[in-house]
Amino acid sequence: MSTSAAVNEDGNSAPAPGEHRDTYGVAKCVEMYDEAIAPVAPGVAALLDLFQPAFLHSTGFLHTNQGTGDSYARHRSQFIDVGCGSGSFTLKYLLPRLPSWCSKLVGVDNSEAMLKFAREKRSDPKIEYRNLDLLSDQDVERFVLAEGHFQMVYSFSALHWIADHRHALKNLETLMAPGGECFLLFSSDLVVFDVFTAMISSPRWEKYSGVLLQVLPETRNMVDVTSLRSHLRNVVNATNLMPLACEVFRVTGDTGVNKATTLDFLCLLNPVYPLLKEEEKAELRTFTEDVLQDFRKRRSERAIKDYKCLVIHAYKPRQ
Predict the structure, then answer these.
(1) Ranges for the Methyltransferase type domain (predicted)?
(2) pTM given for the model
């Protein structure tokens, strides 16, 4: 999922309702992103398989407790993948795992560049790709009015781009039908966040702190599993959802971006990058390269490849 920020004359963040900046607006970045997630996707799918037997729609709970209403009839069930990005995971891994009675899968993202790629290269008759800004309450409410609620809300590798997980989960709750559930999977930290943190501490780049803080989640400073689990529980408790699982897994693996293009990819991922003039982009590239070199000195190769995967599985009680 792409980041959202408007910038005022001083370069600081100035959020504007309904307005967001497309981090993935460069086609080159979309292609790199699609390559990067390819080696990681099987591990994410394995975690999905691990939890699949516990999903309420798999156990029969979703339909045996539906009361007299027909909103949960199987022929009307629709699922949603929030932060679908390029659509690769949605098409190749999520769609084949959905129950046959799921009538529609909607993939949403706030990047039109990502959605264009998904519609052109990751299409399927059962998938609809739509634009949705998860952090805009009005956008989410309008979306529900137009599309209805969803019996299952998924999100894979997207929520780590959002600083306020509580806000995000409250809007995910809005998307959920009463009795529906959500399965959310995201990372605790990313290498590129070291670059963002260094920029905030740098006299040269600190004026963009407002933009960068919007994509730095609390979890990046949490290293132990206990703190991470506690964070996940607190996020769920800030909503009306009932937690089914709040877990932390260690996942090992490289991204599909080769070392020669890693620097380009990390620069394109930076929400500040599209705000800069060409000469400033060259400066940012040099700065990013220096941070990465320092990062490699401070952390072993094993630490670079290992990251913690966070999982929230919850359901929305019927009123």
Answers:
(1) 80-183
(2) 0.86
